[in-house]
Amino acid sequence: MAGKVIMTTEIKPSVTIVATYDGDYFVPRRLIEAYRSFGFEVNFVGWDRVSRMPRNKVVGGVPHECIMRGWGYANRKLLIALPLWTLRLAAHMATLRTDLVHAMDFDAALGVAIGLRARKIPFLYDIQDNFELRHRFPALVSWAIRKTDNWIISQSASTIVVGEERIVGDMAQSRDKIAVIPNCPPDVPPPEEIVKDKAHLTLAFVGRIAESRGVRLLLEACRRLPWLRVLMAGEVEGKELGQALSDCSQIELHGYMPQEKALELVHRSDASFAFYDPSTEICRRANGAKWYDAMMAGKCLLVNSEVMNAEWIRREGIGFTAPYADIEEFVRTLSYLHEHRQEMEEKGACARRLYETQFNRGAMDQRLLEIVLKALDGKVAGHP
Questions:
Q1: What distances in angstroms separate CA 355 from CA 128, 224, 271, 292, 298, one per listed residue?
Q2: Residue 92 pLDDT more than 90?
Q3: Does domain 201-357 match CATH 3.40.50.300?
């Protein structure tokens, strides 16, 4: 990969990636690949929310250890589980043998920061979603999260965000130690045979499949537009929503897929659908991985106009926008796309140029490597 510097020491430096899930997710997979290409020995420490893997497992030569199992997602039990996880993770960090820790999001970084506070091991704080903005917390709780977040940033060697719009509130005071690294995919070639079906408009929907991602809007559009098709990959949140999707013959629902297979769906589409419920601030500040997936595949985007980056998408000529909750305007936009394929293809070509010149995996890995070298001060820290 152009510009990449490989670590060359007699003993490989080690990095531990920490997250509040079991590691079977595209972000840690990309990080694992990047660190291994840098010459690191990689380990993963996580929380198996659904108890689907043993405590210790080796995946692709990388040891995965789940120090906590069960408790699920998005439920009241997490009021107990999250503090327990933080304490358990802090204790684990206090004795962990590693040269560097890469902590994913607030709920992993807090335990890491506490556990490493008395040690000379640097950690990177990787903010995929600002914790304070995920929910409508009471004012006092939001204040406490914000203050704690600022403390984690101050303790980190460097903090990573996916876009400038995620640098909010007091974070701006630490701008000099915050780096922007969007979630850009590797360059996955298209399948050998792609049949262009001009009779239908095919949208790709890859990622989190939830009410807050405009899924109901898509279902209603399918009901009204018999020529609309949707290729969908990801885990569905909610049995009722899953049933509604399964009942729609115009939606090809694949469930969870490895990244390379999911990106094939984007290649097979005409455009990539990326809507976010604007009632929550984290959605208005969206900087979706699926945007860069579309760029890689040379496909145009369809994004709701309330997203802060919607104007940038229009200005760069890489996509179309429509209001989130206006079904009539959404249907009109889809009809326009159906009738103006050449314009879609031109915007897709613009998107591909952006991928090749700015938002490709190689460029993002080079940014990460620069941060890593700075965190280690150009050398590998000795094991404690």
A1: 20, 34, 16, 7, 8
A2: yes
A3: no
